Amino acid sequence: MHLARTxxxxxxxxxxxxxxxxxxxACGTRLNFLVGLVAVALFSYSAEASGTASTLxxxxxxxxxxxxxxxxxxxxxxxxxxxxxxxxxxETTEPQSQYMALLGADLAQSVxxxxxxxxxxxxxxxxxxxxYVIEILPTLFTTxxxxxxxDKADPNREDLVRIEKERMQFQAVFSKGTSEILWQPPFLAPxxxxxxxxxxxxxxxxxxxxxxxxGEDIAASLGTPVMASNHGRxxxxxxxxxxxxxxxxxxxxxxxxxxxxxxxxKTREGMFVKRGEVVGLVGQSGRATGPHLxxxxxxxxxxxxxxxxxxxxx
Length: 314
Ligand SMILES: [Zn+2]
Known about the structure:
The protein is an alpha+beta fold.
């Protein structure tokens, strides 16, 4: 849980009224609910106070839900955060429509205050704009020492060509996401097992500092079924140098989840999968020291903790 490193939610969230603060506790769900309340509270006087800013907070590598409750008859709810479009969907229609978008911060996102703007078209046809300030707070990522066989730790020239080609293949997939939202709350953990809690850890492999760990590892026995964490389209299924046998699912709205080091892929590129559908089996293919699933998530280009998708959508 992220909250272990954060203290109470009171420290994390600057809300405009004492009434809202009174609802806070150390629970992530409650915090996310509060974020929604703040948005709703701001909205209620937005016509008079358009441009009023309130500060919400988000940790590096975290995903939180952001909610708006515009008046009936509203259409075209949109938003921008960290130069990316927010994908809003309607959560409720009665008695008042509520829209939700997931906000994510890359594990290396610069800390500090970043603007979020949301717009909607009112019943009268006028475009309304709301401004928020999102404060990105630092997450303390510790260092993990790993020892690997030299051929996996230090790829040769031929391997480097393959690695670069594969990096571009992944980039191409991430640049062609479906804009329509295909997922539905909640996200599921793809496999039951021992979670390593190594998301974002800096990695030192055979004594040399490498790229941080951009997903979460779940240890499980060889051959354990791996489920799609939500509905989506399989946009990559293949065998890769570092990631081994892998599946990438596009959930729409610029959100992808990844499943690496499989012993077997049980789906094909282009297939639509349902949440809970088996897409592969746990293995140790690619650069892995034992059987586990590497589960990764990418939201609007941000490398985020996949477990935070579960908390943000439960
Ligand atoms: Zn991993």
